[in-house]
Amino acid sequence: MKPVSTRSSTQRSSGSEFLETRFGGKVLNVTVTMKPDWLVAEQMMPEGDEVQVAVLQNPFGVTRQLTNLLSGAKSGDSLVIVCSGDKIYRAALKFLGLA
């Protein structure tokens, strides 16, 4: 299974992408960011949503960490992926299949 993502209609913030990701028959709201802040959180997740957060720090663990995160999520979940650098940010977007 490979994830396929499209940018959501939510406005983009510098250093962040808001995605609708399809993986294993599930549809997930995913935020990939290098600069997490309250504005990003408020734009992507309405109050009351449950959110799963992953912090990616090792470029060699991106595939494994994201596969585990996506596999454990339920359809409709909101995921926030915080990347510690530009290389990891690009690797995460590539893995998520951003067209």
Search tags:
99 residues; 5 strands; single chain; 28% helix; five-stranded mixed β-sheet; alpha/beta
Characterize the structure shown.
The protein is an alpha/beta fold and 99 residues long. It has one domain (4-95). The chain is built from three helices and five strands, in the order E-E-E-H-E-H-E-H. It has helices at residues 38-44, 62-72, 86-95; strands at 4-7, 16-23, 26-33, 51-56, 78-83. The protein is globular, with a radius of gyration of 12 Å.
Provide a quick synopsis of the model.
This protein has 99 residues and is α/β, with parallel strands linked by helices.
Q: Could you tell me the radius of gyration in angstroms?
A: 12 Å
Name the helix and strand elements from N-terminus to C-terminus, one letter apiece. EEEHEHEH
Query: What ranges have pLDDT less than 50 throughout 5 or more consecutive residues?
Result: none
Q: In this structure, how is the largest beta sheet organized?
A: 5 strands, mixed
Q: Give the strand content.
A: 25-35%
